[in-house]
């Protein structure tokens, strides 16, 4: 993917991968970027600013709209 845009930051890899799954189900290619020592030190993600989700720049507005329309699970 060239010309990437960050569309969100998450506290965990799980949350970011969930967002990627939602985006991909809507036809938007996305990827997760984090610095957590290959998963060995998950706390590094928070220290480095969170787990980032990136999409093609041309898809950024649609991706943000898709994630904004998602409803949280009921308690």
Describe the structure.
The protein is an alpha+beta fold and 75 residues long. It has one domain (4-69): Hypothetical protein rpa1041 (Alpha-Beta Plaits, 2-Layer Sandwich), CATH 3.30.70.1530. 37% of the residues lie in helices and 23% in strands. The protein has 3 helices and 3 strands. The chain has helices at residues 13-25, 43-47, 60-69; strands spanning 4-10, 30-33, 51-56. The chain has a 3-stranded antiparallel β-sheet, with helices on one face. The model has no long low-confidence stretch (mean pLDDT 82).
Question: Helix count?
Answer: 3
CATH architecture tag: 2-Layer Sandwich
Q: What is the name of the CATH class?
A: Alpha Beta
Extract low-pLDDT stretches: none
CATH topology assignment: Alpha-Beta Plaits
Question: What strand line-up does the widest sheet have?
Answer: 1-3-2
Q: Which percent range describes the beta-strand content?
A: 15-25%
Query: Using DSSP, what is the number of strands?
Result: 3
The gyration radius over C-alpha positions equals 12 Å
- Taken in chain order, the helices and strands follow as EHEHEH
Structural class by helix and strand composition: alpha+beta
Q: What's the CATH H-level superfamily name?
A: Hypothetical protein rpa1041
Span between N and C termini?
A: 37 Å
């Amino acid at each position: 993917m060239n010309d990437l845009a960050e569309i969100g930051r998450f506290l965990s890899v799980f949350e970011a991968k969930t967002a990627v799954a939602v985006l991909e189900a809507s036809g938007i290619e996305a990827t997760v970027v984090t610095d957590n020592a290959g998963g060995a030190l998950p706390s590094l993600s928070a220290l480095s600013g969170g787990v980032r989700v990136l999409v093609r720049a041309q898809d950024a507005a649609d991706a943000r709209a898709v994630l904004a329309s998602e409803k949280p699970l009921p308690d």
